[in-house]
Write a structure and sequence with these properties.
- The chain contains 17 helices and 13 strands.
- The chain is of the alpha/beta class.
- The protein has 3 domains: about 60 residues, Transferase, Pyrimidine Nucleoside Phosphorylase, Chain A, domain 3, CATH 1.20.970.10; about 250 residues, 3-Layer(aba) Sandwich (Pyrimidine Nucleoside Phosphorylase, Chain A, domain 2); about 90 residues, Alpha-Beta Complex (Aldehyde Oxidoreductase, domain 3), CATH 3.90.1170.30.
- The strands form 3 sheets. It has a 6-stranded mixed β-sheet with strand order 3-2-1-4-5-13, sandwiched between helices. It has a 4-stranded antiparallel β-sheet with strand order 6-9-11-7, with helices on both faces.
- The protein is globular.
- The two termini are about 35 Å apart.
- Homodimer.
- One of its GO terms (molecular function) is thymidine phosphorylase activity.
- Belongs to the thymidine/pyrimidine-nucleoside phosphorylase family.
- It catalyses: thymidine + phosphate = 2-deoxy-alpha-D-ribose 1-phosphate + thymine.
Length: about 425
């Protein structure tokens, strides 16, 4: 095979075979195929696309470029979830202990935040002592014993994807559906789970801005998962406003504990219950999604899974006493209040601006090397549809002076208060 021939083939919109795609990925990973040829190939894919079979071959080839976790030692169906990234998305922190409490096995590898989206690993690191790296045997033993573990993504998982993503970033080929889907699924397929729920965010605070794009991405990822022999479900969830009330690492741990205690935000509780319902059905714990959903909602409302969260934190070295006194998670930050300049109903917010504002305060990274402040962030006192009165506090900024002026400007222009009470549809679609 010759790389120039394969570039030409895709340039003219022809379908590549599994062997040809494997040749490209192996050659590029080993340094045999240079960046300039891979860049040309990526641009050809950008303009001419790939079908589900090609996308699956690409995901599998990237998966096989590194370590593929063998989780056979964990008893039962292994479940996992993946979010495409949003603002205030702390679903994994609530879902892991909930799923484990209800009898499923969740073995999860998560990432760090970059840009306006937060990372589960950063949030967990706001708990003193919490270990985000575990030897594989200890990782599997923990899942067997208590039902869940969350660790940082290994550098050996899908190295081809990391190398290709870095190239996509500088060649304007990031926003290609087959490349996005294959990138996400290569890591999920390498992580060893049997059943996966994909939480595809759509709206101003998400990478997918329109429902049409989110649907296309979801269908392609579900197709890839099924062709790879996995149980995969995708749900489209709204990111027109941040999920929950709190944005920022320790603040989101605080809100996760509140949710597990039975008094969390309605939107966060709903998304967690929907995903858990699908995972419980996939694991054979319930006969239907509806039964799993109701069981999840009841368990959260009654605060039954919060002790499983403390058990999970303790198993990974975290200071349980520290987080049981939730006020510790608020840190010693300064507070700045944003107040409403008119009365009415909150009709719209710019979720992206909230994520950027939190990043300006120090809660997120612009580059992977940036150091973050684990305790700064935002606390939204009003959500879409809520009544607002002039002079009422609608948002509190937890800060240490860094980026405060920029954050205030972003937040103040992110609220639209009008005369209509608007209902936000949280779950847009389910794709199986």
């Amino acid at each position: 095979m010759d790389m120039i021939d394969l570039i030409n083939k895709k340039k003219y919109g022809q379908k590549l075979t599994n062997e040809e795609i494997s040749f490209i990925i192996k050659g590029y990973t080993k340094g045999i195929i240079p960046d300039y040829q891979m860049s040309s190939f990526l641009m050809a894919v950008y303009f001419n696309g790939m079908d589900a079979t090609e996308s699956t071959s690409l995901a599998m080839a990237m998966r096989d470029s590194g370590e593929v976790l063998d989780l056979k030692d964990i008893k039962g169906t292994k479940v996992d979830k993946h979010s495409t990234g949003g603002v205030g998305d702390k679903v994994s922190l609530v879902l892991a202990p909930l799923v484990a409490y209800l009898g499923a096995k969740l073995a999860k590898m998560s990432g760090r935040g970059l840009g306006h989206t937060g990372g589960t690993i950063d949030k967990l690191e706001s708990i003193p002592g919490f270990k985000v790296e575990l030897p594989l045997n200890q990782f599997k033993d923990q899942v067997n014993q208590i039902g869940c573990a969350i660790v940082g993504q290994s550098g050996d998982i899908a190295p081809a994807d990391k190398k290709i993503y870095a190239l996509r970033d500088v060649t304007a080929t990031v926003d290609s559906m087959p490349l996005i889907a294959s990138s996400i699924m290569s890591k999920k397929l390498a992580s060893g789970a049997d059943a996966i729920v994909l939480d595809v965010k759509v709206g101003s605070g998400a990478f997918m801005k329109t429902k049409e794009d989110a649907m296309s991405l979801s269908r392609l990822m579900v197709d890839i998962g099924k062709q790879a022999g996995k149980q995969v479900t995708a749900i489209l969830t709204s990111m027109e406003e941040p999920l929950g009330h709190k944005i920022g690492n320790a603040l989101e741990v605080y809100e996760s504990i509140e949710t597990l205690e039975g008094h969390g935000p309605k939107d966060l509780t709903e998304v967690v219950s929907v995903i858990t319902g699908h995972l419980l059905k996939a694991a054979g714990i319930v006969e239907s999604f509806e039964a799993g959903y109701e069981l999840s909602k009841t368990t959260l409302a009654e605060g039954k899974a919060v002790d499983k969260f403390y058990e999970f934190v303790g198993a990974q070295g975290g200071d349980v006493a520290f987080i049981k006194n939730k006020k510790n998670l608020l840190g010693n930050t300064k507070r700045h209040e944003i107040v409403a300049t008119s009365s009415g109903y909150l009709e719209k917010v710019d979720a992206l601006n909230f994520g950027i504002a939190a990043m300006k305060l120090g809660a997120g990274r612009m580059t992977k090397e940036d150091k973050i402040d684990l305790f700064v962030g935002l606390d939204l006192k009003k959500k879409i549809g809520d009544e607002v009165k002039i002079g009422e506090v609608i948002c509190i900024l937890h800060h240490q002076d860094k980026g405060l002026k920029d954050a205030i400007e972003l937040i103040e222009k992110s609220y639209v208060i009008g005369s209509e009470k608007r209902e936000l549809k949280l779950i847009e679609e389910t794709i199986v």
